[in-house]
Design brief:
This protein is mainly alpha-helical. The chain is built from ten helices and no strands.
């Protein structure tokens, strides 16, 4: 995609224009073939890419509008009884995109609400595939997001709660690189939280 190339080169205005062209093109395809979910998925992806560029350009309101349009598509198909995990994952990601944008503009309450919805979806997906470490990691990542949001909002107790839960949900033994990285980062985040609440003994224990 030309938009991806411009974005990688740091040419955000042209990247944005290319993504808008892609949005208009896929919208026409979706109108001509409304039963084909491929066009819906392509449209949602193009919207998310345009939203990310607008976010980098500090055009928060434009990014908000675009991300919400993408979220509406994901929400529509994720709510179907026979919806696959990919649509649910897309909806989870849309909540995370909006949360990140809310964090950028300092609306921490809205950010936490979006992250909480993303976490709920991640937990539901993990429950649908018990024992799947990939799904468990998605839960861990969403808990990290919530912990980070609470940290910025100076809610140390909630931050600690989310980071501790990430440790409980995540892998217990480092049997590959991803599991090792997840354990290390969860321990570091929990140690940081314990330091924030003044528990230096637990902080040191986790850092070891």
């Amino acid at each position: 995609r030309l938009g991806d190339l411009h974005r990688k080169l740091g040419d955000l205005p042209n990247a944005y224009d290319q993504y808008v062209e892609a949005i208009l093109y896929v919208e026409r395809l979706a109108e001509l073939d409304p039963e084909n979910l491929r066009w819906k998925d392509d449209l949602m992806n193009a919207l998310n890419l345009a939203g990310m560029v607008a976010k980098k350009q500090d055009r928060a309101q434009e990014a908000m509008r675009i991300f919400r349009s993408a979220q509406e598509i994901a929400a529509r198909y994720a709510s179907d009884a026979g919806a696959g995990l990919l649509w649910k994952e897309d909806l989870m990601s849309s909540h995370a995109n909006l949360a990140s944008l809310h964090m950028d503009i300092g609306d921490f309450a809205a950010a936490r609400s979006e992250y909480e919805q993303a976490l709920a979806i991640a937990m539901a997906m993990a429950e649908a595939k018990p024992g799947d470490e990939g799904m468990q990691r998605k839960v861990v990542y969403r808990l990290w997001d919530l912990g980070n949001a609470c940290s910025v909002a100076d809610d140390a107790d909630a931050m600690l709660e989310h980071y501790e839960k990430a440790l409980q949900v995540g892998p217990k033994e480092p049997h590959d690189i991803k599991s090792a990285e997840t354990i290390i980062w969860s321990l570091r985040k929990a140690a940081f939280a314990y330091r924030r609440v003044g528990d230096l003994q637990t902080t040191l224990r986790y850092l070891k």
